[in-house]
Write a structure and sequence with these properties.
There is one protein chain. This protein has 450 residues and is α/β, with parallel strands linked by helices. It contains 15 helices and 6 strands. Strands 2-1-3-4-5-6 form a 6-stranded mixed sheet.
Length: 450
């Protein structure tokens, strides 16, 4: 007896899922990258630890001639009271201007010149190593690093501001010789705020790239799975026992879940690799200040940044978005009569994916702070919402209700895509010759409904 509606989709799902995950190729591409992450990440961290600069125990810098042209009060001797045992015995000598500071530093062994100015974004500090000195560029860079960390002591004295107001003095420009580097002075902010700024920049971008490549890889596979029965002459038997919509839904869900499982294994391998790498680094060098370890520590201190409802909503929206694009990809498989036609038939899937990607990456209101567009309307268009809204949800930038609305709309589009693919499959199952064009889809669907 032929089943009605979506009945039988579960049977197709179980069969297709077992068939796909049972393939040697799927298992290898699932396990090998996870093992690679598990081994390579700790190995890279250990190599980085061994090749990193050792802790500075002493400095040959004995004096710094300071040309402070800010016009603000300053006592550079305060830099010797920061608790740094390496750079605590340096003599700071005022100079009239930078030329005078460089000339004086050139006449004294172990001396540097320092120019302090006020720029558009805050204080600009320029460290100069005079010609002919025995100090190396490394010595100057080490002192520059110390100055970056210790400068808030002077900034506080110069500004007379409160701790909250000091956050405005966030840019410090440091240079050694003729090479300038612009830093974002994290020492003026707590770890929570620093991590938040970093995540606001990279999370939306990572979310977009993750979903884009997942859809790109698995969408074609699902479309190929849908067309399989046509090329293998099994559709006659299948269409006698269940509706095309049920078959396509089962196959779409199977391919979707296989992709989710594979990605979850990869993420687990990367996370375990980071945990193992951290453990090994701390065993080799307890108290290590490696940058990635500091970032892990800041993440721990900012554990309140993400709330459980937002995390769950973001994950569900990502999974729903992946399912929606997989369902759209199945339309191409329903339209094609043979595998060679799949490229042209799947153009609707490709165009939607590319258009959503570029709109999200380069749309309105994008900035250096976010890297991607933060236009509010994108939260309610499923094709763009699944790329940008999950990151905004994690960061608490959009209300939970907005995320839930995006989730419902995305699932609705996924269901409509499956139903449309089923109707097209039935219409075109015995078609031979060139496949229909994308522009013909609405006409075909209307014919089926009449």
């Amino acid at each position: 007896m032929r089943k009605k509606g979506l009945q039988g989709a579960g049977t197709v799902f179980r069969f297709s899922f077992r068939q796909q995950t049972g393939k040697t190729g799927w298992r290898l591409t699932t396990i090998l990258p996870a093992l690679l992450f598990l081994i390579a990440i700790p190995l890279i961290m250990v190599i980085a630890l061994q090749s990193s600069d050792k802790e500075i125990t002493e400095t040959p810098v004995r004096a710094v001639y300071v040309a402070d042209v800010t016009g603000l009060p300053s006592d550079y001797a305060l830099l010797n009271e920061t608790g740094d045992s390496v750079f605590s015995g340096i003599e700071y000598i005022p100079a009239a201007d930078m030329e005078a500071a460089i000339a004086a530093a050139a006449q004294r062994e172990g001396a540097l010149a320092l120019l302090t100015e006020l720029g558009e974004g805050g204080y600009e500090l320029t460290v100069i190593r005079p010609e002919g000195t025995s100090l190396t560029a490394s010595d100057a860079r080490d002192y520059t690093g110390f100055l970056l960390d210790a400068f808030p002591v002077l900034a506080r004295e110069k500004s007379g501001l409160t701790g909250a107001q000091l956050a405005e003095l966030s840019r410090v420009v440091l240079s050694a010789g003729s090479t300038s580097t612009i830093y974002r002075d994290g020492s003026l902010k707590d770890g929570y705020e620093t991590v938040r700024e970093i995540l606001e920049m990279i999370l939306p971008y990572l979310g977009i790239m993750l979903l884009y490549f997942m859809v790109l890889v698995y969408g074609q596979g699902i479309a190929g799975s849908v067309i399989l029965e046509k090329s293998s002459k099994l559709m006659d038997t299948m269409l006698l026992s269940l509706q095309p919509q049920a078959m396509i839904l089962g196959k779409t869900l199977a391919g979707w879940l296989a992709g989710v499982v594979q990605m979850a294994v990869w993420v687990a391998g990367a996370v375990l690799g980071c945990v193992l790498g951290r453990f090994l680094v701390l065993q080799l060098e307890p108290g290590s200040t490696m940058g990635i370890l500091q970032f892990f520590s800041m993440l721990g201190s900012a554990s309140g940044l993400f709330t459980l409802p937002n995390i769950i909503a973001a994950i569900l929206l990502i999974l729903a978005g992946f399912l929606m694009y997989c369902a759209i990809a199945s339309i191409g498989g329903a339209m094609a009569s043979k595998p060679e036609d799949l490229g042209s038939c799947n153009s609707i899937f490709t165009l939607l994916l590319l258009a959503s990607f570029f709109l999200t990456m380069f749309g309105e209101n994008s900035s250096s702070r976010s890297l991607v567009s933060n236009a509010a309307w994108m939260n309610y268009v499923p094709f763009t919402a699944v790329m940008s809204t999950p990151a905004r949800a994690l960061l608490g930038q959009v209300p939970l209700l907005t995320v839930l609305i995006s989730l419902v709309l995305t699932l609705a589009v996924a269901l409509l895509a499956v139903l449309a693919a089923g109707k097209l499959y039935r219409l075109l199952v015995f078609r031979r010759g060139d496949p229909p064009k994308v522009a013909d889809i609405p006409k075909l669907l209307r014919l089926r409904q009449e």
